[in-house]
Design a protein that fits this description.
With 233 residues, the protein is of the alpha/beta class. It has 5 helices and 12 strands. Strands 4-3-6-1-2-5 form a 6-stranded antiparallel sheet. The protein has a 6-stranded parallel sheet with strand order 10-9-8-7-11-12, sandwiched between helices. α3 links the parallel β8 and β9. The two termini are 28 Å apart. The structure holds flavin-adenine dinucleotide. Flavin-adenine dinucleotide (FAD) binds next to β4, β5 and α1.
Length: 233
């Protein structure tokens, strides 16, 4: 664990914030897209701290985590201010194996965090690779990194962005947002999603479990699926 210093905090949605930070000397450790770190506040439980995915891509002059306020740890992180110091571990995990395969990322809510890192890293390193993000949220206002994702879509014709909103009350929304839950089977059958791509899933346990099982049902080989589960309840 090493003390890091907060450089910036951006509120992405009503309950999600991104915290930007570096080591105290301003340097940034090497990590792989999709990895996570542990944050430790010594006066909070559990004593080993909690895991947070890096939402930035490697190679930038900062690290970032994107955190949803749900309890003590996440509130403490979202309340951090520039110049605050906090304890951070080195990075670990292997959600993303950087092969040449096309990738389909499926996320819900703050589950976008590691996916955003992977998308940015992949499009930068291999702009020809097909990258599809299927991202679901309750309402349009809950979509984290919407502007950044739309900019990526403008810049990279091979980046497909599919946005679902499940509880949007507004009846006059832009048709680029699809109302209701997505039907994975239909998306695979209609070739909206490519069954031969690698799949990377991130979100809460029920979401990841359901999609994982649906992918298996649709004959996606298990070795093509990677998952990250943020919380279980
Ligand atoms: C590998 C890994 C990576 C993770 N990366 C991130 C990340 O990038 N961003 C992030 O915000 N969290 C991430 N998490 C979850 C994080 O570690 C904490 O569990 C989370 O912040 C809740 O901790 P807490 O102490 O604030 O709340 P707790 O007291 O643990 O939880 C309070 C309540 O909120 C529920 N809850 C927990 N998480 C969520 C959620 N996302 N949405 C809705 N309800 C929830 C809990 O089930 C509980 O009922 C990650 C977890 C793992 C294992």
């Amino acid at each position: 664990m090493e003390e890091h210093i907060v450089t910036k905090v951006i509120k992405n949605t009503k309950d999600i914030s991104t915290i930007y930070f570096t080591k105290k000397d301003g340097s940034v450790p090497i990590f792989d897209a999709g990895q996570y770190i542990t944050v430790l506040f010594k006066d909070l439980l559990p004593p080993e701290g909690k895991a947070y995915s890096l939402s930035c891509r490697p190679g930038l002059p900062y690290l970032s985590i994107t955190v949803k306020r749900v309890g003590k740890y996440s509130n403490r992180i979202c309340d951090l201010k520039p110049d605050d110091k906090f304890l951070v571990s080195s990075s670990y995990g292997s959600l993303f194996e950087d092969y040449d395969q096309d990738i389909t990322l499926i996320g819900a809510g703050v589950g976008i965090a590691p996916l955003f890192s992977i998308i940015n890293d992949t499009l930068l390193k291999n702009p020809k690779r097909k990258v599809t993000l299927l991202y679901t949220n309750k309402t349009i206002k809950d979509i984290c990194f919407l502007k950044e994702l739309e900019e990526l879509k403008e810049k990279h014709p091979n980046f497909k962005l599919i946005l679902h909103v499940t509880k949007e009350k507004d009846n006059q929304i832009d048709p680029k947002f699809i109302k209701g839950r997505f039907n994975l089977e239909e998306y695979l059958k209609d070739k909206v999603l490519d069954v031969t791509s690698d799949f990377i899933l991130c979100g809460h346990i029920n979401f990841v479990k359901d999609i994982y099982n649906d992918l298996l049902k649709c004959k996606v080989p298990v070795e093509q699926i990677s998952t990250e589960i943020f919380f279980e309840s």
